[in-house]
Automatic annotation (TrEMBL):
Catalyses which reaction(s): Hydrolysis of DNA containing ring-opened 7-methylguanine residues, releasing 2,6-diamino-4-hydroxy-5-(N-methyl)formamidopyrimidine
Top-level taxon of the source organism: Bacteria
Domain Formamidopyrimidine-DNA glycosylase catalytic: 2-89
SUPFAM superfamilies in the record: N-terminal domain of MutM-like DNA repair proteins, S13-like H2TH domain
Identification of the protein by name: Endonuclease
GO biological process: base-excision repair
Keyword check for Transit peptide: no
Length: 244
């Protein structure tokens, strides 16, 4: 699943199409995507894992789900969910969910919850977490109402950074650890962004898909489905403390 930093990169790459008119529309979406033909793209935004395209009187949301992807000026040969061609290039979206928004994005999205946004509010994140004392931290980090943009890679790596076991409960975390959780959700997201832009992201993974802890050499633990979210988890029982 593309995580928030990847959607920010998409937004930056798609800015070249802002102000351009849609010349052709293709795709197998059940939505009435043909109505985008002739429309001018007014702006692009990102919120968490959502990519938003503003066409003036309405906006289109692209959610990449688990297997979604996009390509610019390089169609894959597979049938896209949506393809838009502009005079200066094209963008193709695959295996994603599309939705025309019923209202303006500012009325629908809490930008202070987006870990990559200038409006990010860590104090609000701490308040939301304190209201979920029984939640496992592995689930709390994936809660898009609290940490919009955080996905499974960021979850695993943040918990390793702050030395917290993924099955710890939010309410059992000391205040210092809760603060570290919130701070690192944002800091690691920006590290992820920088590494992905430099094409070195996987080289920096410490535990995600790894088998040996780089801190103490212990065998890493792996669970195919952990927590309510039932997502993959990698952690070290030696250096990541369980708070219950």
């Amino acid at each position: 699943m593309p995580e928030g930093p990847s959607i920010v990169i998409l937004r930056e790459e798609a800015e070249r199409f802002v102000g351009r008119r849609v010349l052709e529309v293709e795709g197998n979406s059940r939505l009435d995507i043909a109505r985008l033909k002739g429309r001018t793209l007014r702006g692009v935004r990102s919120w968490g894992k959502h990519f938003l395209m503003d066409f003036g009187s309405e906006a289109l949301r692209v959610h990449f789900m688990l297997w979604g992807r996009y390509r610019i000026d390089d169609p894959s040969g597979a049938t896209p969910r949506l393809a838009l061609r502009f005079r200066n290039g094209r963008i193709d979206f695959y295996a994603c969910s599309l939705r025309f928004l019923d209202d303006a994005p500012d009325a629908l999205y809490d930008w202070s919850a987006d870990v990559m946004a200038d409006e990010w509010d860590p104090a609000a994140a701490r308040r939301k977490l304190r209201a979920r004392p029984d939640a496992l931290v592995c689930d709390a980090l994936l809660d898009q109402d609290v940490f919009a943009g955080v996905g499974n890679i960021i979850k695993n790596e943040v918990l390793f950074r702050i030395r917290v076991h993924p099955e710890s409960t939010v309410g059992a975390l000391p205040a210092r650890k809760l603060g570290e959780l919130v701070a690192q959700a944002r800091e690691y997201s920006f590290d992820f962004y920088a590494w992905k832009k430099a094409y070195v992201l996987k080289k920096h993974w410490q535990v995600h898909t790894r088998s040996v802890c780089p801190r103490d050499g212990a065998r890493l633990q792996y669970r195919r489905a952990l927590g309510r979210a039932q997502r993959r988890a990698f952690w070290c029982d030696v250096c990541q403390r369980l708070y219950r």
